[in-house]
Automatic annotation (TrEMBL):
Sequence ranges of Basic residues compositional bias: 156-172
Protein's recorded name: Fcf2 pre-rRNA processing C-terminal domain-containing protein
Listed InterPro entries: Fcf2/DNTTIP2, Fcf2_C
Main localization category: nucleus
GO biological process, one term: RNA processing
Pfam families: Fcf2
Originating organism: Cyanidioschyzon merolae (strain NIES-3377 / 10D)
Domain Fcf2 pre-rRNA processing C-terminal: 54-139
Entry GO MF terms: RNA binding
Keywords: Nucleus
Amino acid sequence: MTTNLSDCLLPTTRSFLDEDDLSCGTDREVEDLIEKYSGGRSEATGEPDEESVPTPETQALLAKEVALLQLRKHWDPKRFYKSMGHEEKLDPRRFQLGTVIEAPHEYYTGERLPRRARKSRIIEEVLADPRARGYVKRRFRAVQQRAQRIAEASKLRRRRSSKTVQRRRRRS
């Protein structure tokens, strides 16, 4: 029995399945090997499958961190952060966290955090930064004052409109 050599090659890794007798085995074995070597990626697009992305155990805390990341442009007005995308909403159940590893040349830069200033969570880092806390407090107060002024104005508007309605009723 002669087997075509290209039939025994995996499409993603281009390695032999069985080098001894060049037999490919059953279709199920080939599918299992393709799934094993593709690393949870779909065959058509090469993108990771949704099922392969793990769902975090501590979902509530990590979902808060993702929400905080989405609001990071409001921490510092003088710093630009790239958008996380407005078209599609980020699913808080499906995401992954990673660790940023600094390059050796970044050791002497001004943005480097010393080891004792580093925290395990993003929320802790933001709350520990006095500049960020001060800015957030100022902005929160400004938003609250603006909302209070708007509420008072609408309250006055409702009073005035109710008085005019009462006057019209009296006249008729």
